[in-house]
Amino acid sequence: MDAKRRQISVWLAGAAVLPSIAVAATQERPDDELRRILLEAASASDSFTDRFHAEVWLTDMSRRLARQVKNPDERIEILTHVHYEAQRAELEPELVLAVIEVESNFDRYAVSVAGALGLMQVMPFWLDEIGRPGDNLLHVDTNLRYGCTILRHYLNKENGDLRRALGRYNGSLGQRKYPNKVIDRLTRKWFKV
Fold first, then answer.
1. Number of domains in the chain
2. Could you say which DSSP state residue 50 is in?
């Protein structure tokens, strides 16, 4: 086991004893509707309209992601999963990329002080809430499935108000710092082609 994964394992073991206040820091505590939606999303198993669209989008976004993710194969893996999960959740993939940049800066092994995990910094309590404790939030596809589903739920809950939905996602509803950061990244770096 490499040093980074060993460090994560040690941290995760210690994170289990964090107070419940810290656990609720990133996303709101679950409600029944979101619990149901997440369970359906976690259980579900192509997002591009055609090969040309895939090549253009992946090439463009890969260039933009090169600074954070040096390995081109890893970039394409992340981008392919982002596009698929964003489309599945009816989100713009560029919005998801902006959220990931702000949340984890594309570190798939990121762990926040509150215990949020992975690219989209999903809180692990969701696994127990929907009865899927074996899901691994450090896996790119799993993390994106949960994160995109949660973000879509908050957008629906806020009637499409992106700032309020982002505030809910981050646990900072009513504050502007986090939504402004994501929207800044969206408009300056991940703008739609």
1. 1
2. S
Q: Are 94 and 191 in contact (CB under 8 A)?
A: yes
- Residue 29: the pLDDT is 59
Tokens of 59: 């090439």
Lowest average pLDDT, out of 26-40, 97-111, 157-171, goes to: 26-40
Question: 69-92 pLDDT, tens per residue?
Answer: 999 889 999 999 999 999 999 999
Does residue 128 surpass a pLDDT of 50? Answer: yes
d(CA 181, CA 178): 5
Structure-block tokens of residue 163: 């700032």
Position 193 in a domain: no
Looking at the domain assignment, is residue 113 inside a domain?
Answer: yes
Tokens in use for 126? 């969701």
Domain that holds residue 131: 3-188
Q: Which residue has the tokens 């809180």?
A: 123
Q: What type of residue sits at position 168?
A: R
Give CA–CA dist 15/31, Å, rounded: 23
Q: How many CA atoms lie within 13 A of 139 on its CB side?
A: 8
Predicted confidence (pLDDT) per residue in 89-107, tens digit: 999 999 999 999 999 999 9
The answer to whether the CB of 120 falls within 8 A of the CB of 147 is yes
Return phi, psi of residue 191, to 5°: -45, 145
